[in-house]
Design a protein that fits this description.
This protein is mainly alpha-helical and about 190 residues long. The chain is about 45% helix and about 5% strand. The protein is built from 8 helices and 2 strands. It has a two-stranded antiparallel ribbon with strand order 1-2. β1 and β2 form a beta hairpin. α2 crosses α3. It is elongated. About 10% of the residues are buried.
């Protein structure tokens, strides 16, 4: 049994630990197991065998202000995952809807988009048909795909004229214009459905 704090005793520490002169003994409380004990020469707790010295605060991890870029496929490599995700979003399809069009489970679409599965040629063909694109669109990188889609859109004289006028609109006018276009598109969809 240990003496109360501040009271010194003439007891000698256990055999494996070195003895400290009585005049230099200090009473300490272990931060880990809360045992009150005399300081040993090795500054180790008798019960939990952890250091009795005050722990130095560990350096905190710094939070990056700018997120690390996601690992990308090697330059020139196939980027099917991002192509499928981008094309699916452009067509306002959920993974479930795309999977239904292809006749595959939704999890397969998720694995393709996350780069955990690489579709076979037959799956690429079904993906292209489900997304209503050419199979080569799934194999091109995003900037090339975007450039090609922009070229197709600006080839239409009506859309090119709208794009020329839309460049001069402020944010409010663009919002109003886009809302009218959405209403027209939804009205047309309702009539054809």
């Amino acid at each position: 049994m240990m003496a109360p704090l501040g009271v010194q005793s003439q007891e000698v520490p256990a055999a494996p630990l070195q003895a400290v002169p009585v005049t230099e003994r200090a009473v300490l409380k272990c931060d880990h197991c809360k045992l009150v004990q005399y300081r040993t020469a090795a500054d180790i707790c008798r019960r939990c065998k952890k250091s009795l010295l005050a722990e130095q605060p560990k350096a905190e991890l710094t939070i990056a202000l700018v997120p690390e870029p996601a690992p990308r496929a090697e330059h020139g490599g196939l980027q099917v995952a991002s192509a499928v995700r981008d094309l699916r979003h452009v067509r306002n399809l959920s993974q479930r809807q795309l999977a239904a069009r292809m006749g595959v489970p939704r999890t397969y679409i998720s694995k393709i988009e996350n780069g955990k599965a690489m579709p076979t040629l037959s799956s690429l063909d079904r993906l292209a048909r489900a997304l209503q694109v050419d199979m080569s669109a799934l194999l091109r990188d995003a900037p090339t795909r975007h450039k090609d889609e922009t070229a197709v859109l600006t080839a239409d004289p009506f859309l090119a004229e709208i794009a020329r006028y839309a460049a001069h609109l402020d944010a409010t006018q663009k919002s109003i214009f886009l809302n009218h276009v959405r209403e027209l598109a939804q009205g047309r969809m309702r009539r054809t459905a």
